[in-house]
What we know:
Radius of gyration: 23 Å
Shape: globular
Largest sheet: 6 strands, mixed
Bound molecules: flavin-adenine dinucleotide
Strand content: 15-25%
Helix content: 25-40%
Structural class: alpha+beta
Distance between the termini: 25 Å
Number of strands: 19
Amino acid sequence: MVYDVHIIGGGLAGTEAAWQLARRGLRVRLSEMRGTGERSPAHQTDALAELVCSNSFRSDDHEKNAVGLLHHEMRLCGSLVMAAAAKAQVPAGTALAVDRDVFSAEVEAALAAQPMLDVVRERVDTLPAAGLTIVATGPLTAAALAQSIGTATGADSLAFFDAIAPIVYHDTIDMDVAWMASRWDKGETKDYINCPMNRDQYVAFREGLLAGEKTVFKEWEANTPYFDGCMPIEVMAERGEDTLRFGPMKPVGLDNPHTATPEHPNGRWAYAVVQLRQDNKLGTLWNMVGFQTKLKHAEQVRLFRTIPGLENAEFARLGGLHRNTFLNSPVLLDRQLRLKSAPHVRFAGQITGCEGYVESAAVGLMAGLMTATELTGGEWTSPPRTTALGALLSHITGDAEADTYQPMNVNFGLFPPLPDVKKKLRKEAYTSRAKADIEPWLAQVAS
Length: 447
Ligand SMILES: Cc1cc2nc3c(=O)[nH]c(=O)nc-3n(C[C@H](O)[C@H](O)[C@H](O)COP(=O)(O)OP(=O)(O)OC[C@H]3O[C@@H](n4cnc5c(N)ncnc54)[C@H](O)[C@@H]3O)c2cc1C
């Protein structure tokens, strides 16, 4: 068969993209290396859409939860992953959890029933020079293809490990304690939010870092390099009592206006400072500079809430460090997930810098729809950015800060803010706005 599209990778994103294309009558070749005797270190089967770890698609609450809303929008788009999850569902309260074997079998059966789709068990080692292609090879893309992608994108734009600093929702930071300033601020730019610590607070915080329970690297991640710029904060803390105060918690040049006195009208320097930097264009998300960490998530929440100004912080993302192949998408991809330097190639799934099964499948879904539109001569319109699909797509394809780009789950911090709505009603307000706004866009999906 002559194919309209070549999809590389039969995981969450690749199978969803393949489904969206094949059900519209387009001819698809889906290449998957598992089944040839080769597997990534995390995969354990040859099944398509294998869930490599948890069996949960997280919250299914589409009224108060961003990932639940994403489920809802994907269902409206006829998602294969959501349909297979419904058939494989197991009890898990308000979460959507599945029997992983049934789930993969459902995905395989649905794709096998598509006459215009061939699943080919083969490893692809180079980016195709021509022909519409979707690369959905995931966080553990095989080495030769990763190298070929690195050559096409520039090695600096393809990461092999993430180094995730926690991200805080701006409206949960106490600005009566924290303040905006840049180091040696002369008043022109005040780019950072600064959280001050006195000596006792700093010492206790460092002890918390040292004592806190950490996640361990998987065997095949053991060689994770700690580049100077992304050493875990707890490793830095181990190096000496003052290492952090000379590193990411350096207080010098940061006058704290909350301590202003007639003698010191600009305020004094704190003993140590935690700095947060804006992480998205909307200004709703702020990352804790230099705070990449292997501390367990519950431990991070507990310890980081001891930082003055962050006592009530809500986290859009917690810190981590993993093996993870991903592109600097905000720079490399256009708004349709196409490589700017080679627009016949689209990327989908975790390799674009989204994070999670659902997000990966959602980006696969959009890549499938975009490619179908391109092949049928239509004009693509992106989902409104007030929807979960649109917010995620906008973040990946340009709205995230490229300098600090790291894998991201869907969360309400990616949505245009609703400052006039009371905080406790905001989640419902985001989801009702999304549900109203997605309706007109769905007409495009139906065609
Ligand atoms: C160890 C680990 C644990 C994770 N746990 C979770 C979790 O619990 N919950 C969660 O939501 N997310 C988790 N993730 C994150 C992520 O959501 C999943 O990895 C998700 O499967 C990504 O979907 P994807 O389609 O982008 O990639 P994948 O599902 O990994 O699919 C990529 C496919 O491409 C194939 N492939 C790779 N290279 C080639 C090649 N050169 N030629 C042909 N085929 C190729 C692979 O065999 C694979 O089947 C985890 C990730 C890792 C690495």
